[in-house]
Amino acid sequence: LRKRFVAVQLPSASSGVSNFRKVHWTTKCGLVGSIALALAAVLYATARPDGTAYLLPIQLAQILPAVESGAALGSLPTFLHVFSFALLTVAVGRPQSASACIVISCGWCLVNVMFEAGQHPNLAPAIEGILPSSFGFLPLLENVGPFFINGTFDSLDLFAAAFGALAAVGFIMWARSKESEL
């Protein structure tokens, strides 16, 4: 009688990499965007004083270790916000063209730049003055006026937003090129 041997191939570290290559490029954008957004939330919660991060509960800021925010760390959440939202938008929208991906990244940069510019001491009072009074009674919108008036304009955040868009475009183009190699 002949004995039959079945060759079993155990997964190796390189097979995980090759499996990642088989994942659609927009799924990679969604995964990396989600991780970047989670990191931004943790940084924001630990680098901001209690009660100043509107959408993060005070309890979260109390249980996480405090992080001293230097100039670069203070702008890192802005970088991560643009980077992550660009990648998440691409993951959901699944644009077909590279130019659409660039427009999405630039759009998120523009949103961040506008909100940052709105905190400038020369612009904030004018913005708060034109906001509808009904914003004060609507959930989430009640802090729009105080965001501009009490916010701190930081020119480094403008650069961080631009670098976040550039990094997003770079990652998107890399992910697209890897898929076209398969």
Structure description:
By secondary structure, the protein is mostly helical. The chain contains eight helices and no strands. The protein has helices spanning 13-21, 25-47, 58-63, 71-93, 98-117, 124-130, 144-150, 155-181. The protein is elongated and about 55 Å long. The N and C termini lie far apart (43 Å). The relative contact order is 0.15. Residues 5-10 have low confidence and may be disordered.
State the gist of this model.
This protein is mainly alpha-helical and 182 residues long.
Pairing-aware structural class of the strands and helices? mainly alpha
Topology, number of strands: 0
Low-confidence stretches: 5-10
Number of helices: 8
Distance between the terminal alpha carbons, to the nearest Å?
A: 43 Å
Mean pLDDT: 80
* Beta-strand content estimate: under 5%
Radius of gyration: 22 Å
Q: What oligomeric arrangement do these chains adopt?
A: single chain
Characteristics of this structure?
182 residues; mainly alpha; 0% strand; elongated
Show the helix and strand layout:
Elements: H1 13-21, H2 25-47, H3 58-63, H4 71-93, H5 98-117, H6 124-130, H7 144-150, H8 155-181
